[in-house]
């Protein structure tokens, strides 16, 4: 999933949840309601899906859609969701200003104080950050105040192909090191690109590929695009395809967002299994090249796709759930990938969370003292173990 960016064209409305609809209403908090733009109050069931019957209030519109199921915004907060926009705009963790949380005992907590939505604070512990990504183990998030980002003056997207995984990821690292303010930069390996061509009716080169997008003024975009092209060509990139019109860009990103379904179509009737690791950008070429080699050697049907601007990527493995031997190979591949990420000073999950399956890996990552501290927090807030028992810890 990827962060929803919204444009605020009026300063008098907030979003709330009421009988399955979103309502635009004045903010009751503060001496001058509506004087500040750039924030949005979302009820617990508010959803991001463009086809959802819940529509944004007047004067607010999505800047870009993002993939995944019809996720609720507060659910995205609870899981610390992120995705294609995170390289420039940050993850949910970076865009939540305040949370309304029902604690296990029934008390209502506003993590930054009732009605507050400041950009910075040094007041006490960061309670908002504590609940973002807590996966429902500490309390029930019922409302979230989110930061809004202005829609850019101009947007341009592009795809380009590379002779190897190494060349594609080296380009990513060099673009970021050159401080090009790229808005999105996504990697798809040759298998994933072939699947997307078939599923989304694209005509891209079947090769390791980068999807990029740039936001800014017309002048700034020209400079960003020129510098990016120089870097990519230096690394052997070719087959540039630029998309400037909104319809072209939407078609391009829809293909990326439907990558999961494209991968499943490689083996109709089988199930998908997604890995999720994140490493420092400087170690990204190393782990991606090794992962591609491991995937080819494993004999598994799988693709690589990732938010490489953040050092985060996924292997989507398509498996027969009735084939016990294949399931064992999938498990072995996933564990090997995570431990390689940890060895490179990365994390066992960049955005999907711990849940049940990565509890032991979390212990390896944060250590004994880290786990004990988390257990103490859990016991203090939820002494009866009511909230998502068994998850995370």
Task: Describe this entry's structure for a reader.
- The chain has 393 residues and is of the alpha+beta class.
- 35% of the residues lie in helices and 23% in strands.
- The chain has twelve helices and 16 strands.
- The chain has helices at 73-79, 86-89, 92-95, 127-131, 165-177, 190-200, 218-234, 246-257, 259-264, 284-298, 324-343, 359-381; strands at residues 5-8, 14-18, 21-25, 39-43, 60-64, 96-102, 108-110, 140-147, 154-161, 184-188, 209-216, 238-243, 271-274, 277-278, 301-307, 312-319.
- The strands form four sheets. Strands 9, 10, 11, 12, 13, 14, 15 and 16 form an eight-stranded antiparallel beta sheet that branches. Strands 4-8-6-7 form a four-stranded antiparallel beta sheet. A two-stranded antiparallel sheet has the order 1-5.
- Strand 6 and strand 7 form a beta hairpin.
- Helix 10 (284-298) packs antiparallel against helix 11 (324-343).
- The relative contact order is 0.12.
- Residues 1-37 and 49-67 have low confidence and may be disordered.
Overall body shape:
globular
Helical residue percent band: 25-40%
Q: State the major sheet.
A: 8 strands, antiparallel
Tally of helical runs: 12
Instruction: Name the helix and strand elements from N-terminus to C-terminus, one letter apiece.
Output: EEEEEHHHEEHEEHEHEHEHHEEHEEHH
Determine the structural class based on helices, strands and strand pairing: alpha+beta
Tally of extended strands? 16
Cα-to-Cα separation, first versus last residue? 24 Å
Given as residue ranges, the uncertain stretches (5+ residues, pLDDT < 50) are: 1-37, 49-67
Mean of the pLDDT scores?
85
Query: What value does the Rg take, in angstroms?
Result: 21 Å
State which percent range the strand residues make up: 15-25%
């Amino acid at each position: 999933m990827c962060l929803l960016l919204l444009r605020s064209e009026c300063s008098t409305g907030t979003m709330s949840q009421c009988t399955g609809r979103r309502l635009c209403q004045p903010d009751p908090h503060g001496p001058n309601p509506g004087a500040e733009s750039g924030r949005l109050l979302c009820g617990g069931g508010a959803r991001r899906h463009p086809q959802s019957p819940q529509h944004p209030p007047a004067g607010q519109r999505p800047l870009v859609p993002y993939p995944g199921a019809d996720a609720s915004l507060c659910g995205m907060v609870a899981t610390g969701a992120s995705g294609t926009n995170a390289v420039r705009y940050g993850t949910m963790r970076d865009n939540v200003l305040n949370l309304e949380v029902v604690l296990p005992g029934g008390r209502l907590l506003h993590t930054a104080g009732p009605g507050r939505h400041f950009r910075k604070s040094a007041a006490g512990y960061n309670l908002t950050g504590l609940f973002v990504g807590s996966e429902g183990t500490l309390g029930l998030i019922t409302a979230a105040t989110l930061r809004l980002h202005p829609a850019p003056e101009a947007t341009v997207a592009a795809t380009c192909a590379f002779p190897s995984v190494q060349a594609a990821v080296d380009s990513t690292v060099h673009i970021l090191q050159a401080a090009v303010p790229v808005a999105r930069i996504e990697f798809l390996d040759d298998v994933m690109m072939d699947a997307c061509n078939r599923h989304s009716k694209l005509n891209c080169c079947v090769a390791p590929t980068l999807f990029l997008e740039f936001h800014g003024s017309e002048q700034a975009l020209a400079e960003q695009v020129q510098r990016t092209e120089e870097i990519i060509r230096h690394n052997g990139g070719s087959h540039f395809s630029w998309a400037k019109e909104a319809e072209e860009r939407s078609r391009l990103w829809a293909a990326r967002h439907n990558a999961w379904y494209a991968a499943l179509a490689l083996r109709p009737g089988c199930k998908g299994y997604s890995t999720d690791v994140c490493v420092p950008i400087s170690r990204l070429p190393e782990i991606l090249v090794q992962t591609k080699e491991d995937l080819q050697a494993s004999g598994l049907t799988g693709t690589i796709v990732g938010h490489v601007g953040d050092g985060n990527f996924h292997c989507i493995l398509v498996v027969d759930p009735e084939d016990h031997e294949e399931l064992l190979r999938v498990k072995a591949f996933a564990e090997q990938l995570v431990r390689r990420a940890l060895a490179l000073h990365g994390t066992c999950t960049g955005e999907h969370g711990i849940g049940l399956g990565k509890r032991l890996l979390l212990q390896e990552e944060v250590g004994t003292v880290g786990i004990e501290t988390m257990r103490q927090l859990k016991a203090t807030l939820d002494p009866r173990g009511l909230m998502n028992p068994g998850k995370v810890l």
